[in-house]
Please model this.
Amino acid sequence: MTFAIQFSIDVLSLGGAYALMALGLVIIYGILRLVNFAYGELIMVAGYSMYLTSGSGMPWIAMAVVAVAMAIVFGILTDYVAFRPVRAKSVTAVLITSFAFSNLLQNAALLFISPRPRNVPLPDIFSQTVNVAGVITPVRNLVTIAASVVLLAAVAFLMRKTTLGIAMRAAATNFTMARMLGVPANLIISSAFALSGFLAGVVGILWIGRIGTVVPGIGLEPLLVAFIATVIGGMRSLPGAVVGGFLLAFIDTTLNYTLSQDLLKFRDAFTFGLVILILLWRPEGLIKGPASGQRT
Amino acid sequence: MKHSYLTAIILLGVIVIIGVGSQLLGVRLYDRIATNLMISLVLVIGLQTFMGNSGLLSFAHIGFMGLGAYTSAVLTIPVQMKGMALPDLYAFLKVVEVSPLLSMIAGGIVAAAVAALVAYPLMRLSDAAAVITSFALLVVLYTVMNNWSALTNGPRTLFGLPKTTDLLTAAIVAAFAVVIALLFKESRTGKLLRASREDEVAAAALGANIPHLRWRAFILAACIAGIGGALWGHFITSFAPKAFYLKETFLIITMLVIGGANTVTGAVAGTVLVTIAYEGLRGTESALNATAVGAGQLIGLTEIVLALAMIVVMIVKPGGIFPNREIGHILVRMRSRKET
Amino acid sequence: MLEARNLSVNYGMIRAVREISFTIAKGELVSLLGANGAGKSTTLKCIAGALKAGGGSIMLDGRDITSASPEQVVRAGLATVPETRDVFPDLTVAENLMLGAYIHRRDRAGNRENLERVHHLFPRLAERGGQAAGTLSGGEQQMLVIARALMSRPAVLLLDEPSLGLAPAIVDRIFEMIETLKRTGLTILLVEQNVNQALAVADRAYVLRLGKIVTSGTADEVRAATDLTEHYLGG
Model:
């Protein structure tokens, strides 16, 4: 019984983080049909923001708010630098500019801050452990689960019940038609990037909370997670990305528990292999996105 | 079709000029740069065969370069050295030692085989999904190379490869790559693949099985990458898995994209340009580092400049320098316009 | 109310619309006729702001909207129903309609009133409020896109081929609907391939051929023009 609880907590906390990562990415892809390679760097920005404000004497929660705000700013900046100038040109061009921007940000961190890991302050409460039905687990895990539940519900509410959310969903299906109803295109796009940045910022803090340090390349793993979760979930489906995130967490946690010691370092290869099998079975992903009629 | 012959001649001519030119200048540094350039040509052209024809970006390319390099390493490190270089190597491989030429081909074959196995499901995905899955594939290939210590010495440097790649060898392989790329472009697979980018339904009506065509192009690209990797391995004689990861991926994509992903001419032009820019920037970086008074090391400056250059090129000329027509085609058209 | 002066629209190198001029008075229903490729839809898209004008001007109630963005055109009081019948398939009927009222989203009372009026005109849509728009029939979708356009409280309505791909019985109903809308005082520019139905509801009509206006006049005058068949079959 304790094993089941331990396993569930692990899957739920990892899945929550993964789902948030995926959601931040799919919001941009769903609406704009654009893959944001610089997405991982938003998490990096949140981390370095925490590092840079750590000497200031602000309470941790204030530093966290600043970090999330920085992620939002950089999210919108990504739009202006990497997306807007080339949006009309071609899908590949945008991919490449966002890849270039990602590289630029990482190297800027390398150059202006440091290539070496830098400590990120964490509230003491994160590392404390708590006893849940016989299982000892860091409070951090529970915080992650709570945060992801709250955020996922909030995003779902935004998308379904608010005018902005409905406009975003409409823009995701048919951008031109939405404009012809008076929906301001730029507002939708900026909102999408801001929301994506917000999610990246929050999950960034939770994610870096696991490790405690930040390096320029820290965004790679979340980016990869977001990519894979999005693909298995169904490229343009928001609920799909969430499902993909939890599924990926389930696979990763199961492999963590079952792989022998010397195979454990190949865990990512095994995960990828399983993902390939899923894609072999269902190339369009698990959940259908908004109807579009063409190959996205 | 005739344009292709002219293109081939011109591009091969460029290779010859670079090769001969750097020999004439006699500076050892230029020899190294030129050889590196030839090797980069092989890799970038390999990427072009996939990207230019299918329209999909593949991030996994450098991973296959690594596979080729390690395959060639395992097969050519002298038996006496194997004990030191790869202490955990499997018994049956410990006694193998083949000529670098054979091992280069073996490198291409291994890369192609892995590509064939892993990539088919990817080719059925939608365009964006295929691209980001290829990125994941790069990471997985890196993880495998980084951890399979028996074959790769893990994250540590693997040394002991015989230095058999010189400027001439690299130039010859690069020349082959140019020819193969042009041949593939004009082949039925190449043409159908490009047609399917324009109009999927029409291409399907012609009998094009798009995933299958993409798969073939991907295998060819992986094979060329594998050969390129082996070629590089025998030039540098020692390497580690992190040589086959993001930084190099960014570089070859920059080269291909700036030159023009749709044309072989673009691949060549981009490689030459970016190599010159890169070496220039690196030199500047070192000079600045040497002179800076307590200002700290300037790492990453080269990459930042290149990234900015990429963004600017995408804004101004998203198709690259040679977006659509090969150089042979352009020259022929210019000539016929002059005549009319 | 709506006036085009020497309007030209280019599709890349092709000049799809060449210096056409027309006017629509307030409350009129004017029909734009012509064969496929004559430039009718292109004209409409240009007025709606989705395509750039290559020359000339478009005036809406005295205001120049030639280079206005789609959002600005809607705010100026001109709503467009494109020929592709673009409902948002994954949104419900109600959500589609709500989006139509986007520019008035803060006027909740006004929107509720308007929605009732629209439901009155289109009772079918009232029934299917919670249904996903993609599951509606072709005729119902056409009604939805018209209703959605009306939610923006336009003074002018542009309709692009509303009868396209619909069964004759449904087409009749759509045109009854258009007639009703006309009676409410709405100014309408109707692009149609179905010449008879179009001329039956229109006050005046223009015939486009290869980007130029070749015939114009009252509905009766245009109907009597003998070369109409030639325009459609030979044009």
Residues 2-32 of chain A form the longest helix (31 residues). Chain A has one domain: 2-227.
